[in-house]
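**User:**
Make up any protein.

**Assistant:**
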Amino acid sequence: MLETFKMAAVEDEVDKDGEDVTFKSLGIVDVLCEACQQLGWKSPTKIQREAIPVALQGNDIIGLAETGSGKTGAFALPVLQKLLENPQRLYALILTPTRELAFQISEQFEALGASIGVKCAVIVGGIDMMSQALMLAKKPHIIIASPGRLVDHLENTKGFNLRTLKYLIMDEADRILNLDFEKEVQKLQRASLQSPVKVEVATKYTTVDKLQQSYLFIPNKFKDCYLVSVLNELAGNSFMVFCGTCNNVQRVTLMLRNLGLQAVPLHGQMTQSKRLGALNKFKSKDRSILIATDVASRGLDIPHVDVVINFDIPTHSKDYIHRVGRTARAGRSGRSITFVTQYDVELYQRIEQLIGKKLPLYPTVEEEVMLLMERVTEAQRYAKMELRELQEKKKRPLDEGENSQEIRMPSKKKKFAAGEKKGKKFK
């Protein structure tokens, strides 16, 4: 029987209960317990305590858990243990809605399964299909994939099929099933959930206590000035700034760079190598500001985000929970600031209704913010020029070594100072 482990993430919180429970007491074998220790996992989280025993019994599961609560481990450990008991290739498939999340899940599977020789393949868009076909021909144990690209391989890659599959896992299942993946997912579902056990450790949309949430009510035309003001005031922190469109991500990134601020973009129109490069620069603290679309709002484990800024308010209220869930993770404190313009009032009221609280106004001094107007206006002008160059470059063939999605600085430009072991091996 194909066992389906469907996980849906909701919010971010750390569990304090059940500290006496161990991975071994949940039924995890010693070699995997040692892997958990090496990763610094001292005790199982709530979703792991609830889901692992049920999964080891072979039950189908629908799990709801907070982001950052260890849900990847909740499905990875049972899959690896069952694979250890019955080694075979093409054993499990994990579907994810974003490329970055796929690579992150692969890293966790490889870390947990390093001592037992687990082989993983990441099959997502933005990467050459031929090289992926070669990886699939080697028959890895675990495939982590986006639905669209996996269907492409099922239809076009000779000899590739999922007939031996034992586990199907949909991570961020609520997002996969609510986006444009319905047709692809239907093609991939070879069996329905059979009397699933519902494992629910998060029942409502709330935010963690250590997250300081606030909002700024500002005229739309001054959003850039207020963004620069907040970044300067809170300089020394790491920031994730969420924008509504890929174009706005590029524009804001260029504007901030023209002001001397270390910003990197992350959006769906970038090549996969550029996306991973930007993410790695931010995670390694080489850059302190990540400007992103909602492609970065879910699932990604970036441990050191101090401040989340909703530059463009999310159109779907639940996306607010996922955005602000990038900070105040694993018991740390964090801050979120949401920009609300005259056009966003209704969307903002829906967010307050969803989280069940009224947010305080973030304190600013308008006169001080307006002092930035001249410098910000000039930076905006340069950003528009560079965006125009990028758009023109897309319309003509790329010269060797060029990348139309790369954001670069112009050759001549003013810069403005701104605050800134042991175990069974698989054959």
In short: The radius of gyration is 23 Å. The chain has two domains: 23-200, 211-390.
